[in-house]
Amino acid sequence: MRKETQKLLVLSLLGLVSVNLAAQQKAKKDTVKGIDEVVVTALGIKRHDKALGYVAEKVGSDTFEETQNNNWAQSMEGKVAGLKVQTAGAGPLGTARITLRGEKSIMMDHNYALIVVDGVPMGNSTTGSDTPAYGAGSGGDVPIDMGNGLNSINPDDIESVTVLKGASAAALYGSRAANGALMITTKSGKTKDGKLKVTFNSYSSFDTVLKWPDWQYEYGQGTLAKNKAGEFYYSYGLSADGVSTGGTSSAFGPKFAGQYYFQYDPTQQGQSRERKLWRPYEDNIKGFWRTGSTYSNSISVESSNEKTSFRTSLTYLNNEWMMPNTGFDRFNFALSFAHQLTKKLKISTKFSYNTTTSDNLPATGYNNQSISYFMIFQNPNVDLEWYKPVWKYGQEQVDQIHPFSSYIDNPYLIAYEMLNGVKKKTITGNITADYQFNSNFSLMLRSGVEILNEKRTTRRPWSSANYLKGYYREQMIKNHEYNNDLLFSYKIDLNKFSFSASAGGSMRYNEYVMNDYQAIGLKTAGEYSLTNALSIPVKYPVPRDKEVNSVYGLFTAGYDNKVFVDITGRNDWSSTLPKANRSFFYPSVSTSFILSDIFNLKSNQLNFWKLRGSWAKVGIDSDPYLLHNYYTASNITGSVISPTTFNNPTLKPEKNTNIEAGMDFSLFKSRLNFNFTAYQNVSENQIIPVSLPFESGFSKRVINAGKIRNRGLELSIDAYPVKSKNFSWKIGGNWSTNENRVMSVPDGFDGIVSNVGGVVFYKMEVGGSLGDMYGYKLLRSPDGKVVYRDGLTEIPAGIEKVGNAFPKWRAGLQNDFKIKNFTISFSFDGQYGGIAYSQSHHKMSEQGKLTSTLPGRENPGGMIIGDGVTQNPDGSYSPNTKAVTVSSYYGDYYRRANVETNSFSTNFIKLRDARISYSFSKEIIQPLGLEDLTLAIFGKNLWMWTKFPMFDPEVATLDNATITPGVEMGQLPTARTVGFQLNLKF
């Protein structure tokens, strides 16, 4: 038996058969982890990790099943070196920005990793609401996180995810894989002898807010106004005590000391008739939020035999998010079927159908219609209960209750009337035919499809701050992508040599169109329909179609199972490039050396030692419609708007060159596994917009320019310090660092890549890095002291670099303990070195809402002297002695334009997830007809250490559809989650 098992393993390494169950069982007896597991690489080709010259890190199904997330990708956070899953903190769907090995493109949206499901790439595009994150008082709307293609993937259906980090690993996928790829393999039937296996997975989880800002409840609303007696006072309106001080959003009013003032009276919906106790309402923001809940039930049925495998699953998820009247429902159906029609022909198909529906998803951003805006402006002396009636007496659906400012919408109006609905249907699937001509030659034909149809609705009632007569919007989004692949493969073994070659081609077509109808103003209040519109601007559908045809090839060679070489080549023809530059070719080479075998170094201490290296060049095409100038429809019927960007009819593809080298070690019978990787990536000829002088008639032009270099290191380790029958301990860790360097910029380029809110500027300079944040800072004397003029901080002449949005390094640590039938697991992760600007901190500090604005309030007259110097007429400096009011001081020191005082370190350590489970013994469950019964309690984001003052240091801004790290612009709270799980198999 031992000889047969060894034979099967050898054949498997040569690629002739897959590792079967017997081989796996033998490996488990001798080692903790197989040193040569099978992973899925580009085009869905299964390869042995031993033969790869690049990193292909595999994440198993347990990661996604055991600690469920609304977006499965978040389960990988901190578990894979070099991978970052960034969300905008914008609600329950949690659209993810997945990057590998840092930022390579100047354009924020061009840095995402490719997502591939069962060998078929996903489009995974995001359609925004066409609104910026900063828009207060502009009369516009707010960004809403409606999710993207990632949200349609059911975590219970994931068998594994292979992370291909570099261009070398994903070169066969072309342009979209220049930033690496995540290869998702979904589950298929894996039972013995045709037996039917049923799995039921149910979990319930509950969300509370992880972290709150440090609000102060010592002083109330006001601006240091004094009455006739020279005392600080408050009055909601004109009263016997003095003029109104109730119209301010600032909290520089009187201290709460048991006094009585004329205040707002909810029964009067105006000023109280008598003076009321001046008191704080410390739950007047936190009390708006509730305990959120998520309930999910999934059932799957599978069966397989020698010829046929089958699996189908149904999953329903209901989410009630922490903000009242928000959440979503998701339904997933998946089907996997494969059948060996003849000895040579195998047909397989995978199909999934997803619906995501919501009556209301929360809005984010700094704008009147977001709950973030209300939280910023809520004052300590205002009771949340005063807002609950929503409408003024006799004015239902006509005039809201917002007694302190017409610019601040009622929070319950936001939650229950300003609805952002979505109905999304997604179909993904593929059908594959594999024909084995003989033992050497095979053919694979695969056709895949991703169909997204989405309807969005937006409702804004009468009297809302930005739409006094209401607003209604319908968006119809159609996004279809079709992929067809043909692949011929040949393999042969000649003594100690093994060779294989694959050649094929693909056709990809993406069809996108959005119809957008907006009713600006409603004839009848509370009736949301296009027919009730006062006016409907003309909106023509805007397509974004794209087609790419490709041919590619892969050649692999191995010698004595010790040395391996891969060579790939791909040529693309892209519809988004001009005819002269439409065709572009790119190659890759990778190799690996099994040093432990070459030098015969194997022992009980050293089991495996591998050296690997790779080089790849990838061409990257452009977004659609950047070659010629196009007019767009105006709101005035029959008229058009001239383009503001001058497009480029001679665009060339970008170039991305990747070099990677590393080593893998396995020690002490594979009880200790260590991986090290160093890489460099150079992006050139980037397709970017640069500024033009206004007299040209255009604001920007599109060019090829710029050179960006990324260098980094990745370390990962897995170890079993203890492994016995009744107790085992597995520990895993990873660490990664990335250095980004701008090598060149276009001539005449001002360096400004983008900005958020017109305050934080992302600027490129030679020698700098992508993610460098510029803005106004404090002006300082030569010895570093803050310079003041007339008691307020001096304003510098121009913007300067404040820091970088991306951390210097990230790390993760996972622990798994098995104690008889108990399993205890938990993971930490963290980062060091980045910063983020906080709009919420600026506004709350300016208005005196945070505890950091308390110093100086007890000074005589509420005056404060800033710690710093003033510049004398002769250029020398002397201590600042000018006193100003605390409201003026904090309003100036934390003013919106001061990026330095409102930016903070995003260093953090999180207890990312934890789980305790109990699996009942076979003796108990077998009489019940069960194969497995597991109960578990789990948690996510249970604890966090950080000095970031707002909700979460993992902050980013949803600006239209772009997730921009480094800026907090009306972030919503992050959830701390505790849940319970039941898993049954029979």
From TrEMBL:
It comes from Chryseobacterium antibioticum. GO terms for molecular function: siderophore uptake transmembrane transporter activity. The keyword Signal applies. Belongs to the TonB-dependent receptor family. SUPFAM superfamilies: Porins. This is SusC/RagA family TonB-linked outer membrane protein. Gene3D superfamilies: TonB-dependent receptor, beta-barrel domain, TonB-dependent receptor, plug domain. GO terms for biological process: siderophore transmembrane transport. Pfam families: Plug. Residues 58-181 form the TonB-dependent receptor plug domain. It is a multi-pass membrane protein. The lineage of its organism: Bacteria, Pseudomonadati, Bacteroidota, Flavobacteriia, Flavobacteriales.
